[in-house]
Amino acid sequence: MMNQSVTEKKQLMIPRHFIKVLIVSLILLSICIAASLMFGSRTVGWKELLDGLFHPDVQSHGASVVRQRIARTVFCLMCGAALGISGALMQSVTRNPIADPSILGVNTGAALFVVCGITFLNISTAGQYIWLALAGAVITAIFVFGIGSMGSGGATPLKLVLAGAATSAALSSLVMAIMIPRSSVMDQFRYWQVGSVGAGNWDSISLFVPFLLTGVLIAVLSAPALNALALGDEAASGLGVRTGTLRLFAALGGVLLCGAATALAGPIGFIGLLSTHVIRLVVGPDLRYVIPMSALSGAIILTISDVCGRLAGRPGELEVGVVTAFIGAPILILLTMKAKMRAL
């Protein structure tokens, strides 16, 4: 009994290094939020920032600019958090260290359904985008997992990545085949496809919140069982985990988060991959800590990428999807070259 009590206390004890990482991450997040509110086509000073946030009676131009940027910043933080958690769930479900919604083709599936909706159903609102994108993300995820599970050995990390890459290439071809003969569809779809948080507003945020909360709840509930799954299917089953049900449940959370973010901001890639890899290196493999920290790091990476895009594209802006691809693609190449494609 004494040993059991000590073990339970150790399990409940939060590692000291996690607290340090959390504090540093919150400081970085605060800096990113301030930068997002201050920098853009017009740079505002600290006084204007404070007036815009805490003094609604002040109606200066700088304070008004800050207020206009609040919704975009909140939307950016939510998208980054959603993509970060989605990446953590995808990597854990597939036991693949380079799994990511964009690499597994989920983003492309969402994009295909959105372009079909624009072309054949004349959709044009975020509320319509979100349901089509979710349907496309779910169907693509099921298809990729099905293809990756065929043959001997089941769904191995390498097979899933190959299935995702092949599926993404095929769906991208379908997207282009639908768009090219229709210039009006191409104009409407092109801006969304690049990936941008510039259209983020309070209406988008209100649409996003239910999906974000549902996905976060699924991730938190799945974390202990996913830790057991990391030991292997046989060991997890021996501990009472229903591996098939767990994978379906956790994958649903990842697809919900990724699909909703993709519907509202476009297919922004590499956030889930980058944020989760950084966090695993810092806090270890325990998903009870990886999931919340992936949310924080995803929000930080996407927000700083948005700020960099605004600064690089002055007086306009460089879309955040371009910035994350520019940063993420070389890192993915390095990971692929160095990784031995082993399971997590």
From TrEMBL:
Entry GO CC: plasma membrane
Transmembrane segments: 21-40, 70-90, 102-123, 129-148, 160-180, 205-227, 248-275, 287-308, 320-337
Membrane topology: Multi-pass membrane protein
Superkingdom classification of source: Bacteria
GO MF term list: transmembrane transporter activity
Keyword annotations of the record: Cell membrane, Membrane, Transmembrane, Transmembrane helix, Transport
Entry keyword annotation includes Mitochondrion: no
SUPFAM superfamilies: ABC transporter involved in vitamin B12 uptake, BtuC
InterPro entries: ABC_BtuC-like, ABC_transptr_permease_BtuC
Pfam families for the chain: FecCD (PF01032)
Predominant place of localization: membrane
Subcellular location: Cell membrane
Alphabetical GO biological process terms: siderophore-iron import into cell
Family affiliation: Belongs to the binding-protein-dependent transport system permease family. FecCD subfamily.
Name under which the protein is recorded: Iron ABC transporter
Organism: Metabacillus indicus (Bacillus indicus)
